[in-house]
Amino acid sequence: MLLTLTTTHRPATDLGHLLHKHPDRVQEFAQSFGTATVLYPEASDERCTVALLVEIDPVRLARTAGRGTPDFSLSQYVNDRSYAASSLLGVALADVFSTARRGRSDSRQHLADAPLPLEVHVPVLPCRGGPEIAHRLFGPLGWSVTATPVPLDDRFPAWGDSRYVSLTLTGDVRLADALNQLHVLLPVLDEAKHYWQGDDEVDKLLRSGETWLAGHPERELVTRRYLGRRTTLAHTALTRLAELDGSTGSSLAPAEDEEVAQPPEQRVSLNAQRHEAVLATLLELGAGSVVDLGCGPGQFLARLVDEPSFTRVAGVDVSTRSLRTAARRLHLDTLSERQAARVNLFQGALTYTDARFAGFDAAVLMEVIEHVDPPRLAALERVVLGTARPGVVLVTTPNAEYNANYEGLTGMRHPDHRFEWDRATFQRWAERAAAEHGYEVTFRGIGDVDPARGTPTQMAVFRRG
């Protein structure tokens, strides 16, 4: 990726002093994922431009995986980390211009403290939400924003625009503020990070946003996206921001594995109730080995591993990023040899036959089927019920009838849901699938009971005849 920053302050070459990078030199900085190069395409008293070029080395990027990362064979080289380019650019910018971000300049401190006429240009930038998001994020910070969509293909106008924009920001802004805003907001526009996010991410965000984030009208959006929509971290960050400006904070969108429309206190409770209900059913039916199909970041896997009754536990997900998070959550790198032998994580798609799915007493599909396109459900049924054929299969999914209890909900509970079924539709599907593959099925509800609408989550218990 390429980013340029230009000033017309006179003498413009003072920019080199502020950035601690001499205009007459081309400098390279090794990064864990590749190389960052700083150069000056133009440097005169009237106008000075610095360019930051980030080149990604996929092999070096793959080798930065943590010790606890499970081995996904070729997937460690074929993954989406190298495509989170905005995150890579933001990290390189923070490293290369670290002194300037702190607002320090031994020879030009008066300039470091003052707004300067600046122009920032990123010719190709991922922007989920289109140009409007760029205006909402940068406009309140004093920037004049030009965000021009990049067509998918100039030769085929009917294809429309891509999710990329050509972004130009102009304004009188303090250089340190500009760099910190870019460090935070570039990955926020993309809504993707190339690295696992830990508890220290909140401190990183608040340090970079110290002078501008608390008063930003979109601080909730910035916080959610920067922290990967991890609810616990985002709540912590927003609480600390609220303390800075004396406000009481605001509501927050849920974690990526939860329904969007539920109030936070109900959402957390429902998630816990789901885990408790599924775990209790597995124990009730005497399962000794369990595979969690679509395990996500491993919240329920942790419950399974903590239960000594399960002699073998496996987690499957199509996302290697989620599996890496699950590995950290389970502390796979510190488990004893005997404990580690009980646990297996592997990548897989539930609509393709995989021998590794077989041989378990029970399989769990918790809040999974609603993320599958309806034409692909038959393939999932064939793979799980027809080929893997565990003795027990537990399937949970939202009850669409209960959605009427969520104030302000229009549409479905989560933007990635392909469908949400009422109880009758879910029961028809489960009964047909059970009959076709030699199972019997019963139904249970999870969560608070509404006399007319049932429970928020419905569960089908398939038992092989």
TrEMBL record:
Q: Which EC number(s) are documented for this chain? A: 2.1.1.386
In terms of SUPFAM superfamilies, this protein maps to: S-adenosyl-L-methionine-dependent methyltransferases (SSF53335)
* Cofactor field: Mg(2+)
- Recite the UniProt keywords alphabetically: Magnesium, Metal-binding, Methyltransferase, RNA-binding, RNA-mediated gene silencing, S-adenosyl-L-methionine, Transferase
User: What's one Pfam family here?
Assistant: Methyltransf_23
What sequence ranges are listed for the domain Hen1 N-terminal?
Answer: 1-242
> Which processes are annotated in GO (biological process)?
regulatory ncRNA-mediated gene silencing; RNA methylation
Enumerate the residue ranges of region (Disordered).
245-264
- InterPro entries the record matches: 3'-RNA_MeTfrase_Hen1_bac, Hen1, Hen1_N, Hen1_N_sf, SAM-dependent_MTases_sf
Q: Enumerate the catalysed reactions.
A: small RNA 3'-end nucleotide + S-adenosyl-L-methionine = small RNA 3'-end 2'-O-methylnucleotide + S-adenosyl-L-homocysteine + H(+)
Give this protein's Gene Ontology molecular function annotations. metal ion binding; RNA binding; small RNA 2'-O-methyltransferase activity
Q: What NCBIfam families does its record include?
A: bacter_Hen1
Family listed: Belongs to the methyltransferase superfamily. HEN1 family.
Q: What is this protein called?
A: Small RNA 2'-O-methyltransferase
Organism encoding this protein: Isoptericola jiangsuensis
